[in-house]
């Protein structure tokens, strides 16, 4: 499994639509809206490095409203986490 983190600058007026279109691309596992100098961060998970060429330049970069991207390829994961558990922090059981 190859993981890439893509920093996305988007047309501010179109961020929700851009995020939804990026999230719908096969190989994109998550899209986050963020503060700071970026608008979105996309997590890409594919089987082979060559698949990144299909996901990022062929699809993600062509989404209307994407102004620029910066891609970082992960070499090694040092921890794994359960996203469901992370998002349920602070909630009581049964709520």
Q: How would you sum up this structure, described in words?
A:
- The protein is an alpha+beta fold.
- The chain has one domain (2-74): Lrp/AsnC effector binding domain/regulation of amino acid metabolism (RAM) domain (Alpha-Beta Plaits, 2-Layer Sandwich).
- It has 3 helices and 4 strands, in the order βαββαβα.
- The chain has helices at 15-23, 49-55, 83-87; strands at 2-10, 28-33, 40-46, 66-73.
- Strands 2-3-1-4 form a 4-stranded antiparallel sheet.
- Strand 2 and strand 3 (40-46) form a beta hairpin.
- The model has no long low-confidence stretch (mean pLDDT 89).
Which terms summarize this structure?
95 residues; alpha+beta; single chain; 4 strands; Alpha-Beta Plaits; Tscrpt_reg_AsnC/Lrp_C; globular
């Amino acid at each position: 499994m190859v993981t890439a983190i893509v920093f996305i600058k988007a047309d501010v007026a179109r961020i929700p639509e851009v995020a939804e279109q990026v999230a719908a691309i096969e190989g994109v596992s998550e899209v986050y809206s963020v503060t700071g100098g970026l608008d979105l961060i996309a997590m890409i998970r594919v089987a082979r490095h060559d698949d990144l060429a299909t996901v990022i330049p062929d699809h993600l970069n062509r989404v209307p409203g994407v102004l620029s991207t910066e891609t970082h390829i992960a070499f090694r994961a040092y921890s794994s986490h359960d996203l469901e558990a992370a998002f349920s922090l602070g909630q009581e059981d049964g709520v």
